[in-house]
Amino acid sequence: MGMEWSHEPSPEKMRQENDEVLQAVRAHSDRAFGFVYLNPRHTQASLQAWAGTFDGLPHKDLPAANARLAEECPRFGKGMLLPFGSINPTMPDWLEELRRCARVHHMRGIRLHPNYHGYALDDPRFERLLRHAAELNLIVQLALVMEDERMMHARLRVDPVDTEPLAAIVKRTAGLRLVLLNALRTLRGPMLPSLLGAGDVCLDLAMIEGVGGLGSLLTQTSADRVLFGSHAPLFYFEAAELKLKESRLTTSQARAIRFGNATRLFDATSLLDSSPNYFVNSRG
After folding, report:
1. Topology of domain 11-282, per CATH?
2. CB–CB of 185/115 below 8 Å?
3. Which pTM does this prediction carry?
4. Cβ 38 vs Cβ 46: under 8 Å
5. Contacts with 153 (C-beta within 8 Å, 6 or more apart), sequence order
């Protein structure tokens, strides 16, 4: 059952809905992660979450994992959890699964984990995947890191995704809307503005490190390219909140990062029913 949408919900209603979102996500914290969108006037509440599945990392049977995600989001999310399926272009049926995510499960986006699925970005199948995702009007989330490699055992280390070929691929892929997840742990220097300038590319702030990290990032790129991201439950959500509070943001910058940029991405999808008025990114 969907949630009743209001253009300007009261703080009490927002808090109640936020509690319901957190309840749903925490009930499946071992398998689910996603974006949650918030209203800047009521920062303790949430309306919508982009949800993925941890099963998408190690499992070969992604059709089953995505089907479970599509089934459980409406069951436990009450219209707030929107599924983003996992696609592995090294599997023989990936194109059919991509179409299934869009046409059968009615997903608005997909999530890619190249370093867990064993392919590099210069693999021709990756570019083909991006092209088909753009044709299906899907948002593409590319996770560069899931866990800080400094926290991994030396024999169990998963290296970050090498983004060197990505800018050229983005330039060649018309209509692509790409979100880089957990990018700021490794994506730095001149490659960052080069990649963001290659097309409709955004990144989240989940792995910004250091005091004043967000302010420093905004000297390299526009706030229109940054999404709020917490990487919860692997990171504390409060840490992401503090990144906004400690940075001196203008009203327009804060609105863009908190909800405006994500709203723009959603407004570009033909499946969007109504636009939420506040975003939070909660993703594991």
Report:
1. TIM Barrel (3.20.20)
2. no
3. 0.77
4. yes
5. none
